[in-house]
Amino acid sequence: MIKNKRQTMNLLGIARRAQKVVSGEATVLKAIQTQSVRLVFLAQDAGSATSKKFNDKCAYYNVPLNQSFTKLELSQAIGQSRTVIGITQSGFARKFEELLAMD
To answer: Which N-terminal residues, if any, form the signal peptide (predicted)?
Structure first.
């Protein structure tokens, strides 16, 4: 489990460097609505309003949502302080789903 978590964090950093990540609430929300995001990471410790907003939007637009990580972990993975991160490429999204399914 810890190995998969570390691999997921490493892959997030790679996806960011490959510019296949959108981050920040407004940016990710817009990407969900335009259906240009394939997977959303939302911090476990996000506020209740933020959690509800992204849970509802992801459910409505049928975008997978993952809440396995804290804000600190997500921020360290991409090098920016963020609560929500969207993955825009389907290949990266598929790999994340494989890693997270192994947990």
So the answer is: none
Domain residues for the domain of 55 are 2-102
List all residues 6 or more positions away from 99 whose beta carbon is below 8 Å from its beta carbon. Answer: 4, 7, 8, 11
3-state SS assignment for residue 42:
strand
pLDDT digits (tens, 9 = 90+) for 15-37: 999 999 999 999 999 999 999 99
CA distance 36 to 28: 9
User: Are 96 and 66 contacting, i.e. CB atoms less than 8 angstroms apart?
Assistant: yes
Split into its structural domains, the chain has a count of: 1
Q: Where residue 53 sits, what CATH number does that domain have? A: 3.30.1330.30
